[in-house]
Amino acid sequence: MFRELLPESIELVETYDISSERELFDEEKWAIGNAVANRRREFSIGRDCARRALARFGVQPAPIPIGLDRAPVWPIGFVGSITHCPDFCSAAVAKAEQFSFLGIDAERVAWPHEIVPSDFLSPSEMDWIASRQGDESRWEIIFFSLKEALYKAWYPAHRCYLDFHDVELSLLSGEIPGVVMGRPSLVASNKVLSQENLARFLETVQIRFSVENDLVYSAVWG
Ligand SMILES: CC(C)(COP(=O)(O)OP(=O)(O)OC[C@H]1O[C@@H](n2cnc3c(N)ncnc32)[C@H](O)[C@@H]1OP(=O)(O)O)[C@@H](O)C(=O)NCCC(=O)NCCS
Prior knowledge:
single chain, alpha+beta, CATH 3.90.470.20, 5 helices, 8 strands, globular, binds coenzyme A
């Protein structure tokens, strides 16, 4: 669960009830208009979770538009993140005066076999995973999820795509289940904008994950 990962001042709403579509504002309905029913449903549940989380800060219900590269457009003064997987959805929001970026990601532990680990893991990440006792595929999905959460935190603040190979994660400990602190080292490439932004991000970034109920929960903030 995300609650035990995130600082208390980050508001969080999560649900395992993903059976029915939630109310959307017209602007959101228009934006998601042609999508298939499953996608409309997950989108609407994500928006609903986000509005409920914002309401805890006293924010009145309002559209949360789809921004550049699909990043949600949060009300001024807030940062946030949304994740959904087949049986779970969550949104986290925080005041921008307290946090510069926030990203969450949930993935099913059951690994989709068509995905190739070397597509998203560096050689040293693969070596680290290989040195764990068993459960390699579980570590692979954890790294995948951590990188997606990192991307969701990074993108709105920097408006720059990060490839899975632009980020290399080194975890301080390797216990599952539980909450494990990790530090990323971003592999500098020309795509990663200014070194100053990068240094600030790395100085402040916090990363945690847990594994529970067959789901990996990853959270990144700073
Ligand atoms: C964007 C991405 C991370 C979404 O992850 P996912 O596991 O497919 O899906 P999730 O349900 O967990 O998250 C989807 C939500 O992420 C958010 N999101 C999408 N693009 C985003 C972006 N550019 N910035 C921030 N948040 C974004 C949206 O809220 C979206 O839900 P919504 O469309 O209903 O609003 C993934 O599809 C992707 O493009 N990954 C490639 C880049 C990457 O991960 N690099 C890793 C290196 S750091």
